[in-house]
Amino acid sequence: MSEQVAVDEVAGMVDRLIELSSVVGDDAAGIDMIAAAERLKAAAAAFQLEKITQFARSQAEAKTAMGFEARHAMRGVPEQIGLATKVSPSAAARQLTRARALTEHLPDTFALLRRGEVSELVATHVVNETSHLAADDRRGVDRELAAQLPTLGPRRAQGLARTLAIAADPAGAAARASHARKDRRVSVRPAPDTMTTFSALLPCEQGVAAYAALRRHADTLVAAGDARSRQQIMADTLVERVTGQATADAVTAEIGLVMTDASLLFGDNEPAQVTDYGPIPAETARTLLEQARVFLRRLFTDPATGIVTDCDPRRRRFDGTLARLLIYRDGRCRDPFCDAPIRHIDHIQPHAAGGPTTPVNGRGTCERGNHTRQLPGWTIRLIDPSRYIVETITPTGHRYQSRPPSAPGAQHRQHLRAEAAGSRAA
Asked: Where does the sequence pass through the membrane (predicted)?
């Protein structure tokens, strides 16, 4: 079978599944179909992980042949995998690590995944819980797990894998726990209804102590008659102690809030955009503006595309107002499928090649994305200046496009223009 025939056959399976979805039987047959689909998902995951491993090995060999040092042979590989699987390079790097672990060090778990007897989540737990083990110890745990994994849910599978891993190398488990403390961090991610999840990965005793302190403070205020719930008090106290604000609502940090003048001044309901978060209701945006010190900066959008093009000239570095414009325009890293925050402002046509420092030739990227484009075989080019569409060409010749999101109000204005054009035609 040729490579292209194999690719077409795998792609054709998607159409076949769509056809089979219209087959309706009794409930017993429905459960059998659901179970079969679950096995198929696992087998497809194993197939993909194996192909990821093969691709990475081939790319590393090619880089070595080009003269790259062994430690640099994998540069650019997660980025290509991420574009193919429509995830960020960081997520793709984790996917690659998982693929190599299963195919090279956990053969029994991988065989179960390939046959659809365990889920990808269970296999991932085994990978994570055995990551600190030497190769022989890891294979030993893999053999012990194999007989029990098909009968366990994800949480029990994770617990058993952890237990066997600790027993296989107690000293290594302790060292891993010590190393994990170096990875303590704070993160924030969007949650529904204009909320965010603000979390901290901390050593267990610190996390427990911090939570207990917030709880004690909340208990004191509730006992004194505070009308807020205990959880509300704990959340407000966290914000006040971290920021030094007198109250949780007194936001002092700069927040990019992009909204139309109609929503700001005339009660229009076009959703606003918060940089690094996403859309929020216009009414919520107006409430935020009532609570905070406000500095207005006019942004100008293209009437046809609805993309931010300028704000209220010529430099080597994208900084000041120009950098702020690109951050407001792009929102997140402009590499396709990468949702990382903007860390670098990149020249699409490199400055060294004569590229100007202008909004049209600029794009916001994460640090990793800006470095990846420097690797051999990668090309970044502007293919539509009016819509700021950028094309990424990978070393394998695959092409991916990205464009900035439309600014608030753009779709509404385009709808009005279409209606007006229809009226004139009539």
From this structure: none
Q: Where are the beta strands (DSSP E) in 170-312?
A: 185-191, 195-201, 257-258, 272-274, 278-280, 299-301, 308-311
Name 225's Cβ contacts closer than 8 Å, sequence gap at least 6.
none
Model pLDDT for residues 116-174, shown as the tens digit of each residue? 999 999 999 999 999 989 999 999 999 999 999 999 999 999 999 999 999 999 887 77
CA distance 426 to 412: 21
- At which residue do the structure tokens 């179970």 appear? 35
Is 338 in contact with 369 (CB distance < 8 Å)?
yes
Note whether 352 and 331 are within 8 A (CB): no
The C-alpha atoms of residue 411 and residue 418 are separated, in whole angstroms, by 10
The string of DSSP letters for 106-154 reads: -HHHHHHHHTTSS-HHHHHHHHHHTTTS-HHHHHHHHHHHHTTGGG--H
Q: Which residues contact 281 (CB under 8 A, 6 or more apart)?
A: 194, 269, 271, 272
Can you say whether residue 17 is alpha, beta or left, with left for phi > 0 and alpha for psi between -120 and 50 degrees? alpha
pTM for this model (two decimals): 0.71
